[in-house]
Amino acid sequence: MSGTQKSGLVVTAHPGDFVWRAGGAIALHARLGYRVKIVCMSYGERGESQGAWKQPGMTLEACKAARRAEAEAAAEVLGAEIEFFDAGDYPLRITDAMMDRLIDIYREVRPSFVLTHAVADPYNVDHPEASRIAQEARIIAQAAGHKPGPGGVSYAAPQVFQFEPHQPEQCGFKPNRILNITEVWDAKWKAFEQLPAQKHLWDYYHRAALNRGMQGGRNSGKPMTYGEAYQTIFPDAVEVLA
């Protein structure tokens, strides 16, 4: 990676999450030349693989292998790198070594932005747990005393964007960013097609993208067919308001 290349980091609980909720942002920024790295905490083998478990003779290890292959294919379509932690799902529980690795990734990738889950989701506790983990690692990555080097720590923490949960009203999700993903919608849909274990969600997230596109167009006054909604966690410091 060149010293001037911008980057983005996506911290996701399960394989499908980064596709449904942030696939457009990933594809768009990859196309703009950003390095985009996805950290996938689990394979979603227990609770996020309904289609896979309908296959006769399915086992946990076979399901994990299938979901890994799907997620790798989706990440490739979107133009991103992906690293798996295999922390398990339902429930998601990471180890100290996994946290340490995520902190290292923050410092290595030096993301310009972080995409992760909403801080609340009463329907899926893995999602806010992944969000909490992403934020904890972001904080520790700034600590001068964590793995100090001879040159000190120069890492600056980036803005964190919560991507849209499945049922936003129940999660207190109030978007303040709508990203125009119209030009990369084909890539996002192709990434959908890499996840047959969750085919039942394809149409739902197609409709969600159309709805956000309509809202984005009305708020911006510019044509937008497909959009993704995000809510920032921290205030933006600016020199002028507009």
UniProtKB/TrEMBL annotation:
Region forming the signal peptide: none
Q: Which Gene3D superfamilies match?
A: LmbE-like
Q: Which domain of life is it from?
A: Bacteria
Q: Which InterPro entries match?
A: GlcNAc_PI_deacetylase-related (IPR003737), LmbE-like_dom_sf (IPR024078)
The name this protein goes by in its record: PIG-L family deacetylase
Organism, as annotated: Teichococcus vastitatis
